[in-house]
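User: Could you check the structure of this?
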Amino acid sequence: GILAIRYEAGETIFREGDPAQVFFALASGMVSVVRRIAGGEQYVRLASIGPGVVFGEMALLDQGMRSADVRADEPSLCYVLSMKRLEEISQTHPNIQLQILRSMAQEMSNRLRRTNQEFTDLMG
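Assistant: Sure, the predicted structure tokens are below.
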């Protein structure tokens, strides 16, 4: 079946620079996307993620490295999927792949809107 992993509050799910082999769907709990500020002692929170959201997929799509750390803010349950596993599942459950792709597209659209807004604010 699908791998499910529990993370305790404060636990790191993945780190910036890690190679990406899997992506995650948050089933319960809350996680934060954080980046280290130069020097590495302080962090800035980029986003909070709640249940039902897919994360960690960006690096997978371009076979890259993780671009930020993700940490559990509270006890959290994540489903872990590889692209290969997603393709296998979609053979028997096509709607799952559609849901995940829709979630990914929604998230990318939100990120793009935020970036555009930040740019507009900067130029303002």
